[in-house]
Specification:
- This protein is mostly helical.
- The protein has a domain at about 395-500: Reverse transcriptase/Diguanylate cyclase domain (Alpha-Beta Plaits, 2-Layer Sandwich), CATH 3.30.70.
- It has 18 helices and 3 strands.
- It has a 3-stranded antiparallel sheet with strand order 1-3-2, with helices on both faces.
- The longest helix has about 60 residues, at about 330-385.
- The relative contact order is 0.04.
């Protein structure tokens, strides 16, 4: 180590803005604090008042923040003798191997020897195990809650004799085991995607807190909610718009993975919509448009980053070539051709992703539209059953009750026009039922209803009882009500005399 005691110099990376350096560290903070929400996910298993968990959450955040700071400072306090400062050491990390390529472990060995490495590895193992346990606990509880609300299959809503959603735990563990075979680099891409997603989630939660505080008139929580939204939106803009504010540290593959993950989410959401019998999801058009726009935007970012990476690789290859030989200029044509292929491939992939996303969205929309049509048809059928008498086809007593309430309201307001009610009772129904059966009785009612409808052609007819009908007269029928009632009387008399009654 050069210099003792360490002075942490330089305090900042030379030739770079201090604010930019602070921002780059702050931008990874959402990822650094993923998992603390597991405390709230496990509240159903608490044997104490859940409100006390806030203290646990605050203590965990403060402790973890301190550990992050201490481990970072530790890495800058010791460096191999061939370097003059921590800055030279960190810059050379890609070319180093073994313990020297891990600054924190190198510092631990520098101060405590092999025991320091063992202690740090034990602490790291505890970190990994506690993270795995916490995340499996939180995710399994999340799956359990979703299954209980009929979003996921019911088999994940079961609890074993210990009150643990065992099947949900096994599902999380099975999915997690697959990721280790992707390799360290791919896992790094996954963590980048997690950072982008976590920033969105924190912004959403802050917005929810803001809205809730506004309803409850909680000024402090409202201010913190607004601050959380603004900070997370700024972070998200920097993550999704690389090199605009700070130099991007996210690989181009991470953006591509984010797009694939989003499309997979659309496909998974389709399965949720199919299971959604209560129409709780998918009704917000602005959400669909926003998600679709986000996928297209990130696809373009991936294309831009891929082209920049290809250009950088081409320049490095050309520089390396010309540093060795200046006779052969074929390298220029080769690199330009490689650059052209990369650009064409990126464009093809972006268009394909656009088409795939659009196809999934349209498919989901068609499913929701079909579900809406089915619900509308079912509602129409239910309304028809409610307002129509099934035996005669005229309006039902429920429909009459609605009309009665409507007219009573008009009377109270003084807006009801002139109207009259004609009440008709079918005689002899019990005799027909007892003598000829209920089928003949039903026909007796239908014939009587038909006679009433033929007379009162401009007025609605209601069947309000087994053998009772009410006619609501307005307009021309109201003006001719006396003549119509006389015609009804004459028809009844004629039927009685002819024996057709």
């Amino acid at each position: 180590m050069a210099g003792s005691p360490p002075a942490f110099e330089p305090a900042w990376v030379p030739d770079a803005a201090v604010l930019s350096q602070v921002a780059k560290i702050a931008l990874i903070s959402p990822w650094a604090f993923i998992g603390f929400e597991n405390i709230s996910h496990a509240t159903e298993e608490f044997t104490f008042n859940p409100t006390k968990s806030f203290r646990v959450l605050v203590a965990a955040v403060v402790t973890t923040t301190a550990l992050y700071v201490f481990i970072t400072l530790l890495s800058a306090t010791a460096w191999p003798p061939q370097f003059h400062s921590w800055y030279d050491y960190i810059r050379a990390l890609p070319a180093l191997e073994g313990i020297e390529s891990l600054p924190a472990f190198y510092a631990a060995r520098h101060y405590m020897g092999e025991a320091g490495i063992a202690l740090l590895m034990a602490a790291l193992l505890c970190l990994v195990l506690s993270s795995l346990i916490g995340n499996i606990l939180g995710l399994s509880r999340l799956f359990y809650a979703l299954a209980r609300d009929d979003v996921l299959p019911k088999r994940y809503a079961g609890l074993n004799r210990h009150g643990v959603p065992a099947r949900a735990v096994m599902l999380v563990a099975a999915i997690s085991l697959v990721t280790v075979f992707f390799g360290r680099t791919a896992i790094g891409w996954i963590m980048d995607v997690t950072t982008i997603g976590a920033t969105m989630v924190y912004a959403f939660v802050s917005a929810c807190a803001w809205k809730q505080a506004d309803v409850q008139n909680d000024r402090i929580e409202k201010i913190t909610g607004i601050a959380g939204v603004l900070v997370m939106v700024a972070f998200e803009l920097d993550l999704l718009m690389p090199n605009l504010f700070t130099q991007s540290s996210i690989a181009s593959e991470s953006y591509f993975l984010f797009v694939l993950w989003s499309i997979l989410g659309f496909v998974f959401f389709k399965a949720i919509i199919k299971r959604d019998g209560s129409n709780r999801f998918g009704r917000s058009l602005i959400v669909w448009v926003s998600l679709f726009s986000l996928v297209i935007f990130v696809s373009l970012v991936w294309m831009s980053q891929s082209v920049m990476t290809a250009a950088s690789d081409a320049l490095n290859a050309m520089s390396h070539h010309f540093a060795q030989s200046v006779d052969d200029i074929g390298i220029v044509a080769d690199q330009l051709e490689a650059f052209r292929r990369t650009n064409a491939l990126s464009l093809t992939v972006v268009v394909s992703l656009f088409a795939l996303t659009l196809a999934v969205l349209l498919n989901n929309y068609a499913l929701m539209r079909r579900r809406a049509d089915e619900n509308e048809s079912a509602l129409g059928q239910a309304q028809q059953k409610y307002t129509t008498d099934p035996l005669t086809g005229v309006k039902s007593r429920h429909s009459f009750a609605d009309r009665e309430s409507e007219v009573n309201g008009q009377i109270a307001l003084g807006t009801a026009g002139a109207f009259a009610l004609a009440v008709c009772d079918v005689n002899g129904l019990k005799h027909v039922n007892d003598t000829y059966g209920h089928k003949a009785g039903d026909e007796h009612i239908r014939k009587a209803c038909l006679m009433v409808c033929h007379l009162f052609t401009h007025s609605p007819v209601y069947r309000t009882g087994g053998d009772e009908f009410v006619v609501f007269l307005r307009g021309a029928d109201f003006e001719n009500r006396h003549a119509l009632m006389q015609s009804l009387h004459d028809l009844c008399v004629a039927h009685i005399k002819s024996g057709e009654a």
